[in-house]
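Dear colleague,

Thank you for sharing your sequence with our group. We've completed the structure prediction you requested, and as agreed, I am returning the results in plain text so they can be pasted directly into your records. Please verify that the sequence below matches your submission; if there's any discrepancy, let me know and we will rerun it promptly.
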Amino acid sequence: MLDRFPAIEPYESGMLDVGDGYRVYWECSGNPDGRPALYLHGGPGSGASPGQRRWFDPDAYRVVLFDQRGSGRSRPLADELGADLGANTTAHLIADIEALRRVLGVERWTILGLSWGTTLGLAYAQAHPERVNALVLGLVTTTSRREVAWITHDVGRIFPREWDRFASAVPDRLRHLPLADAYATLLFDPDPAVREHAAREWCAWEDAHVSLTPGHRPSPLFADPAFRLRFARLVTHYWRNAAFLGEDQLLRDAPTLDGIPGVLIHGRFDVSSPLETAWRLSHRWATGELQALDDAGHGGGDTLTAAIVGAVNRFAAS
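Please find the predicted structure tokens below.
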């Protein structure tokens, strides 16, 4: 069973001014002369973490992590008073990745994205296929309106008690709205108690729908009120806008990735983003390979870890 690599520290880091009042945190670790690799974190809003460096062989890869707008060590944060998410869209994040690539002097890189990071990775690679030499995408989602409706409503058929609590936290005045829109409104309410309650209930639902993974434990990150608000604001912002992409855009344009080798890694226990999306992508991306895992879900799993490390290792040797 493949495990992740030992912990390492960055050899270089900085804050990149990307405009619109945003400064994006970035870091490099591993081998400065190695194959460039970019990790795209999930959420959106979770931020990068030291453990994510461990997906990559530090002798083979020049590992680049960054915190997407509004999250992690980037500034300003989405949980701040007066936060404005108007300049926080998928197009802005793609532009930030390109700005970072130019600053670091990278010609082409291998991209690893998990969960929301797969949506962003697909969108970036389709916009700039000449800058990507391989893609590893785990817990695959395209953040389409259909997928958002599933994860906020339809999957409640599997978790009826948890979904009833999630939906019941929305006051009568907002119940005509889709749940992502209703929560997005509550998370910017002038009353801090309303914001806190909405963030807590949103994150409780996030923990519920990923819980089918064997051995699942609730995320410790959700114990932090500031993180809960930041995460929930960014997730609802992107979900209510279907990632600011056309419906099924990433599926429709998947053939633009032909020639880029890739691996789509997905677990059958993943009811948060069912296997169908990864399967459909694999049929429209000629050089994309699907690995369906029988004992993994959106919350992870040992075989998921081994599959991701194995895929990343394979491209290191190519």
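Summary note from our side: The two ends are 22 Å apart (CA to CA).

Kind regards,
the structure core
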